[in-house]
Amino acid sequence: MQIPSAKPKGDAVLAEITNFEAMAFRLKQWIKSPRPYLMVAGLLLFLAVWYMTTELFKLPRFEKLPGPVAVIREWLSEDPSYGISIYVSEYYLHIIKSMMRVFEAFGLATLLGVPLGLFMGWKKVFRDYTFPIDETLRPIPMLAWVPLAILMWPAREAAIVYLTFLAAFFATTLNTLLGVESIDEVYFRAARCLGSKPRHIFFRVVVPGALPYIFTGLQISMGVAWFSLVAGEMLAGEYGLGYLIWNSFVMVQYPIIVIAMVTLGFIGWASSAAIRFVGALLMKWKVREVSP
């Protein structure tokens, strides 16, 4: 009986250790570089300008805006004046509701937009049929879709997700199409000369070649999904950060507006960072290609 070799398992462990050491090395290099300290300095400078324009000097057009002290005090208060802080469960309900809507719309946009963009770039005849329609609908503002969304989706929740989906879908489709068009024709000719079938060309040339553009498009679509969601929630929402912003404006609770805006910005940044991380894992070959 042949004893199975333990080498593959050892190689996998070694690869994990190597990846961990590489991540630790990059983190140390990032800490030693001036970049993180410049980021902190830029944030502090922004807060200082915000404080001086709104609370210290109360400049014209800024005197009615909430300052950083008022916002942070409300945000961290155990007994908030306007009912929203990190200690209030309703605050997290708004966050969870918005995240569920965005991730649902983003997932649908990815599942439909990426294949559509790949086929548009791969098959010229299919592109001739679909590209004019895409380019005609894409510039239409999301707010212009609101009446049709309400007619098509009487349920309020479905209308909000649909509006969020549209913005993400067009961004994903267009960037995927550009990714396929960016692939050098030499790769297609070489694959055909080596006897590759169309499905092999699609999965081994088209998809890997378009991945950098696809993940760029996914980052863009995540961003546009968030601001489209806010517009939809302002008009037809009951819960969510967009609804919270509009309702706080109506109720003259201006610190809550800023709290919701900052929360949106942080969650949007984290979402895009997660997409970049996944893209880096799937495109290690790209990192090696550009390495000196």
Description:
- The chain has 292 residues and is an all-alpha fold.
- It has two domains: 11-65, no CATH class; 89-290, MetI-like fold.
- Helices cover 79% and strands 0% of the residues.
- It has twelve helices and no strands.
- Helix 4 runs parallel beside helix 7, helix 4 (89-122) crosses helix 10 and helix 9 runs parallel beside helix 10 (241-250).
- It is globular.
- Residues 1-7 and 287-292 have low confidence and may be disordered.
How would you summarize what this structure contains?
This protein is mainly α and 292 residues long. It has helices at 7-32, 35-56, 68-75, 89-122, 124-137, 146-152, 156-181, 185-193, 198-236, 241-250, 254-282, 284-290.
SSE arrangement:
Layout: H1 7-32, H2 35-56, H3 68-75, H4 89-122, H5 124-137, H6 146-152, H7 156-181, H8 185-193, H9 198-236, H10 241-250, H11 254-282, H12 284-290
What can be said about the biggest beta sheet? none
* Overall geometry: globular
| Sequence stretches where pLDDT stays below 50 over 5 or more residues | 1-7, 287-292
Fourth-tier CATH superfamily name of the largest domain: MetI-like
Number of helices: 12
Strand content: under 5%
* Mean pLDDT score: 86
Radius of gyration: 24 Å
Question: SSE string, helix = H, strand = E?
Answer: HHHHHHHHHHHH
Q: Which structural category fits the helices and strands?
A: mainly alpha
Number of strands: 0
> Portion of residues in helices?
over 70%
